[in-house]
Design goal:
Helices cover 46% and strands 14% of the residues. The chain has 332 residues and is of the alpha/beta class. The protein has a single domain (4-230, 285-331), classed as TIM Barrel. An eight-stranded parallel beta barrel has the order 1-2-3-5-6-7-8-11, surrounded by six helices. It has a two-stranded parallel sheet with strand order 9-10. Helix 6 (172-179) packs parallel to helix 7 (191-204) and helix 12 packs across helix 13.
Length: 332
């Protein structure tokens, strides 16, 4: 199968480290995956999450683009309800002007996950409902189409066309199609719904100033190692962190897999263990041959043009080795 491979890094923090270390690691990691031949490197937006240092994706994308030379750089994504569309247009206008031909504009519709964060951001839980309108205003600042603010110009964005991607779930695929945007969709844990959304997106796609035809990126966790067990263990730190967040209300920094399996898992309640085990399921993992076969089958089912890998783990060396093996297997 022929498809591009890309990376989304969420700047996950590790136990005992300052958030700044996670951000520096993101920049270093971008250089490493560029050398491995990956197509894109994206960063994310999270607010008031102790386990995630990436809160300002446009700023971090600038640092990544400065430290690299070839790989495309973008956001997966800027959460549009948290920002004024004019400001987002200006940010990407600056990025696209400084790094011509390398910047991707990936946008999402999530808002802060607590009332306090939403108040601090100046948004509301129902702000997601107007995502299509916010997206139309944003693209209008680039294309010069009418916006709600006559006489105002988004400089230097006006006239530029950084590729537009919409991060979507099932319903968001329709918004991406109407906007003529590329679709980024996760859902390895529910491939049936994902495949249906992709089919609906392609059927409803409207060509735009951004894309002439549909473009689909499927996103998910992928781990490659010398054995299936070793690959599966790469998911352990993130699965534990997700289980902890859903039972304690706080998303913690990553811990070593050995500590989790030997100390934390035996002490889990039934409810915690249920979340933990669910967090280990639905991903693609195994040896190079295993993962190549699984990704080829996924791309065959969805017709995806690209696979965006989002895996996080405590052991940075093992994680980089996974990406190295994945890049190697995709070229074989």
């Amino acid at each position: 199968m022929t498809y591009k491979l890309s990376v989304l890094d969420r700047s996950r923090t590790r136990q005992g480290e300052e958030p700044g270390q996670a951000l520096r690691d993101t920049v270093r990691f971008a250089r490493e995956v560029e050398a491995l031949g990956y197509h894109r490197f994206w960063v994310s937006e999270h607010h008031s999450v102790p386990g995630v240092a990436g809160s300002a994706p446009a700023v971090l994308a600038a640092a990544v683009a400065t430290a690299t030379s070839r790989i495309r750089v973008g956001t997966g994504g800027v959460m549009l309800p948290n920002h004024r569309p004019l400001v987002v247009a200006e940010q990407f206008g600056v990025l696209a002007s400084l790094f011509p031909g390398r910047i991707d504009m990936g946008l999402g519709r999530s808002v802060g996950f607590t009332d306090g964060i939403r108040r601090a951001l100046g948004t509301a839980k129902d702000a997601m409902g107007d995502f299509a309108g916010q997206l139309a205003e944003l693209t209008g600042w680039f294309t010069g189409e009418p916006t709600p603010h006559p006489g105002v110009h988004a400089l230097p964005a006006e006239g530029l066309r950084p590729p537009l991607f919409v991060l979507a779930n099932n319903a968001g695929a329709d918004t991406a199609a109407r906007a003529g945007a590329a679709l980024v969709i996760g859902g390895l844990k529910g491939e049936g719904a994902m495949t249906a959304a992709v089919e609906r997106y392609r059927a409803a796609f409207t060509p735009s100033a951004w894309w002439d035809e549909p473009y689909v990126v499927v996103a998910g966790n992928v781990a490659v190692a010398g054995t299936r067990d070793a690959a599966r263990r790469l998911f352990v730190p993130e699965a534990w962190a997700l289980a902890h967040s859903r039972t304690h209300g706080a998303f913690p920094p990553l811990r070593p897999a050995e500590e989790i399996e030997e100390t934390l898992v035996p002490a889990m309640t039934d409810r915690e263990r249920g979340f933990y085990e669910a967090g280990l399921r639905g991903h693609i993992h195994g040896t190079e041959d295993d993962v190549t076969a699984a990704l080829d089958a996924l791309v065959a089912r969805t017709g995806a043009d690209e696979v965006l890998v989002t895996t996080s783990s405590y052991d940075r060396d093992a994680l980089l080795d996974s990406y190295r093996r994945l890049a190697r297997s995709s070229r074989s």
